[in-house]
Amino acid sequence: MRRWNGWGDEANRMDLPDSGTDFLNEVVGPATPLKDASWDEVLATVPESRLEDHPLIERSKEQRVRHARGQSLPDWLAMRSGNIGVFPDGVAFPETKDQIAELVRYCVDHDIVLIPYGGGTSVAGHINPLASDRPVLTLSLARMVRMTDLDTESQIATFGPGAPGPVVESQLRAKGYTLGHYPQSFELSTLGGWVASRSSGQQSLRYGRIEQMFAGGSVETPEGRLELPTLPASSAGPDLREWVMGSEGRIGVISEVKVRVTPQAEQEDFYVIFFPSWEKAKAAAQKLVQGKIQLSMLRLSNAIETVTQLALAGHPGQIRLLEKYLAWRGASEGKCMMTLGVTGSPIQCRAAHTLMKRTVKPYGGVYTGTFLGKRWAEKRFMMPYLREALWEKGYVVDTLETATDWSNVDFLLNTIEDNLRQGLQNEQEKVHVFTHLSHFYGQGSSIYTTYVFRTGDDYADTLQRWEKLKTSTSELIVKHGGTISHQHGVGKDHAPYLPVEKGELGMQMIRNMCQQLDQKGLMNPGTLLTDAAGAGDDK
C-alpha cells in the first residue's frame, strides 16, 4: 500500500543505524520529532467536491487526499501536520488517449482547472492545486502503463504515459531491451512525468537524458491533439518535442510516449574509487568525461558527503577496516568517494574498466573494486525512504540541485554549502550540508546538495526554517550562473527563479506558447509560470 503521507510503499523502510543517529546527534544536535496527524484527522478536513458526476471521475475523499500533494519538503510537512490546505475536487482515471482528450474538453467546457498526475513524486510543487474559484480536477495516468508497440528495427517503444520505471523496464526486459532511465525516484516516477519535467537518470552517460530518449508521441491540448512523429533527425524548423519536454502540464496532457530503447547489456558493474582530496577527485572526473571514457554512470561525493555516507552505512567494524586501508593508501582525512558504472558487452566493459583505472591513477585514486559499488546499486532507489527514518528521529532532510560549467563548479558548490550551513545561525541551529556531482558533461556538471536540520518547535517553525534556507540558496544559484533545476523541473516552487535563466523575451515566448494552447488558463496554473490559480494569463 502506498503511503499517503510520505514516500513509497508502507512495506519498505530504510532504518537509520545507531552509528547514523550518533553521527547526527554530533553534527546537528539531539532532536525531538513532531507529532503526525492521523488519516482520519486529514479526511475530516476535505471539503465537499464542486464537480458533478462523471463516469471517469472519482470524488471520494480518500482519492482527493492521496492526490493533493507531491514529495517536496513543504508537501511532506503539510501531509504530516494534516494541514494540506487545498484538495482537488476529483481525480480522473482515463485508460485511453481518447478518454484523456474527452476529459480535457470537459474541463474547457465547464471551466475546470486540470492537473496531470503521474507518480506523485514531484519535489517542486508540480501537482499541488492552488486555491481557485474554479473546481480542480487531477488527472491520474495510473491506468495507462502498457507498452503498446515495439519497433525492433528502429528500436522505438510506445508506452502509456503513466508507466512507472519498474513497469517500463519489466516490459522491455521481456523483449530483450532497456530504456536505461534510472532517476532516484525510479520506483514511482513515470515515463510521461520524465518527459514533462526533463528528467535525468543515474546512467545518463550511457543512455542519455530523457531528451535523448524521447522520440515522439501525443499530447492532448485544449486546442486538440498534438502529434509528434518519430524522426531520427530533422532540420525542418524548431523541434516541437522541445516544447513538450519541460512543459509540466501547461500546454496539455501527454497521452502517449515513444522512446528510443537499447538492447539489454550483457554486463554491468559498479566500482568505487577514493581520492585523497576534492581537487584530485574533480580533476579525475573531468578527465574521464572529457576523454569520453565509455562509462554508464559517474557520481562524485565531496569529503563531507563521503564521511556522512560511511557513517550512515552501518557495519562500523567493516568501515573501520576500510578507513584504515584508505589511510595506508594516502586517502584519509578529506578523502572523496567516486562511484562509477561500466555497462555493455564484455569487451566494452573490459576496455572501459582498463581506461578508467589508467585515467584515475595519476590523481591518487584508490581502487576498491565492486563490493561498495554493488552495495550502492542494491540501495540506490531506497534512499528516498531515508527521509522517513530521519523524520522519526526529529530531523528534516531536503535537497537542492543545479548544473553549471566546470569553471564555475567549485565556486557555486561552495556558495550553496556555505549559505545553507550558515542559514540558521541566528536561531543557534546547525545545518549539516554535503554535496555530490551526480551527472557529468564535457562542459560542466550537476551539483546535488543535501541538507539536514532539526525540526522546529512546531510545523510552522519547521517550514519557516526550510523557506529561509531554500529561498536564499535558490537566489544565489541563479545569481551565480546555475540553472534553477538540472533534473527536478520547475513546478511552483522554482517558478519565481526561472526568469533569471530565460530572460524577459524567453519568458514571454513561454507564456505565448502556453496561452496559444490553453487560452482559458486551465492547465496546471502556477506551475512553470507564476500565474494565479485560475487566471487566464501570467501575472
Provide mean pLDDT, rounded: 96
**Total beta strand runs:** 18
Give unreliable regions as ranges. 533-539
Strand content: 15-25%
* N→C terminal distance: 40 Å
The major β-sheet equals:
7 strands, antiparallel
Please identify the structural class as seen in this structure: alpha+beta
Kindly identify the CATH topology of the largest domain: Uridine Diphospho-n-acetylenolpyruvylglucosamine Reductase, domain 3
CATH architecture name of the largest domain: 2-Layer Sandwich
Spatial strand order of the main sheet: 15-12-14-13-17-18-16
> What is the count of structural domains?
4
Number of helices: 19
Overall geometry comes to globular
Q: What key phrases describe this protein's structure?
A:
Uridine Diphospho-n-acetylenolpyruvylglucosamine Reductase, domain 2; 19 helices; alpha+beta; Alpha-Beta Plaits; Uridine Diphospho-n-acetylenolpyruvylglucosamine Reductase, domain 3; seven-stranded antiparallel β-sheet
Question: TL;DR of this structure?
Answer:
The chain is α+β, with helices and mostly antiparallel strands and 539 residues long.
Please provide a written account of the structure.
By secondary structure, the protein is α+β, with helices and mostly antiparallel strands. It folds into 4 domains: 31-142, 2-Layer Sandwich (Uridine Diphospho-n-acetylenolpyruvylglucosamine Reductase, domain 2), CATH 3.30.43.10; 147-263, Uridine Diphospho-n-acetylenolpyruvylglucosamine Reductase, domain 3 (2-Layer Sandwich); 267-380, Alpha-Beta Plaits (2-Layer Sandwich), CATH 3.30.70; 494-539. The chain is built from 19 helices and 18 strands. Mean pLDDT is 96; it is low at 533-539.
